[in-house]
Write a structure and sequence with these properties.
Blueprint: E1 16-22, E2 25-31, H1 52-59
Antiparallel strand pairs: 1-2
């Protein structure tokens, strides 16, 4: 178990570090709030055994803007 309160990747602009403790286990995650007027929610979960930098590389070019829903 990690004892350090840090992510293995850099947060992007507008993103903040959040933490959640469940049954003594600490979960860290990056949080980006929705824009004003946005509806709906997208939750992206990244497997703990996966490479965080690969996930970040995947997410950078992706835009979730479909007919103004998000």
């Amino acid at each position: 178990m990690f004892t350090s309160k840090s992510l293995l990747f850099d947060l992007v602009a507008g993103e903040s570090l959040k933490e959640l403790s469940i049954d003594g286990e600490l979960f860290l995650y990056g949080w980006t709030p929705a824009r004003d007027g946005a509806t709906g929610t997208i939750v992206c979960l990244h497997g703990v055994a996966s490479n965080a930098s690969r996930w970040e590389e995947f997410m950078k070019p992706v835009r979730y803007e479909i007919d103004g829903i998000f």
